[in-house]
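Ticket #4471: structure output looks truncated?

Reporter: J.K.
Steps to reproduce: submitted the chain below (362 residues) through the standard prediction queue, then opened the result file.
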Amino acid sequence: MMLIPTHHFRDIERKPEYLQPEKCIPPPHPSPVGTMWFIRDGCGIACAIVTWFLVLYAEFVVLFVMLIPSRDYVYSIINGIVFNLLAFLALASHCRAMLTDPGAVPKGNATKEFIESLQLKPGQVVYKCPKCCSIKPDRAHHCSVCKRCIRKMDHHCPWVNNCVGENNQKYFVLFTMYIALISLHALIMVGFHFLHCFEEDWTNLLQGYRLTRKETAEARISLQGKKPPLKVSSTECSSFSPPTTVILLILLCFEGLLFLIFTSVMFGTQVHSICTDETGIERLKRKNQPREHTGSWESVKETFGGDFSPNWFNPFSGPCHPEPLRDGDWVRQVTLSDTDNTETMTESEEGKDKDSVEVIDE
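Returned output as attached by the reporter:
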């Protein structure tokens, strides 16, 4: 007599007809290596464009408002190289996170023929997603935006217009880390810029703008007499006027502070998920049910692509490629416990359905 738990799942069926093969078309042939993955979601595309716009805005303010007009060339060159390198790595990580297949399960593989080829044994079941008609391996979850089941799905992030899953979690972690670093770097440079300019150049400039009519006329006379006029230029601190410069820097401060807090929190939660080998969805669903975890260091190495090396911080180096799913990876074992929360098959039903398969609609 076989016991099947029912307190987590619904609509348990034991007939191959449940699969409705006319609605589950066979999966297409595997895509060529390097095929671009892109989600056609209006909200996600808009968020991705906004992300790039904000990074490029910070790039504009840092270069043309703070660094290029600066008289300290060593300061400008060093900070310019560091900021541009971090910005490039952030945008590269964003592209990799957005255009990498996060670990989508083959669509439409829940066919009668495939289920029967698994040769399920007593106590074994397969989980079928009724939304994308796919058999869900362990730790896979369906994304309503991507319209696919994703292996080790953590969440769907509109800022990268993609799910964060098994294959692109490294790129998402790098994206949050580099955005947090350039935000912190920009805030520090803005602080130094405000202190320097208010103390020196802007003080003289504001005094120059308060010239009386008499002083202005004298300045014009001195100009006609080829005498050196009063210097009222702001090129030492910025190529823009003081009010425009202040507005640009305040907006950059607000953007940098907001993104520093947001990306730092996301970076921390992602690192915690990797170290505990538990995704955000699994943490929400787990409640009081313990789950076996693998070693934290092994999970980190698997996510970032092997032993610690500079490639961990390289968005052009991928994670460890998971092994292809075998037939056993599609099958899950049923726990024979909790008789109060189980459904019992009678001996007559076992005899009647001895050639059937166990499918759980999840």
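Triage note (M.O.): checked the attachment and the full token line is present. The two ends are 24 Å apart (CA to CA).
Status: closed, working as intended.
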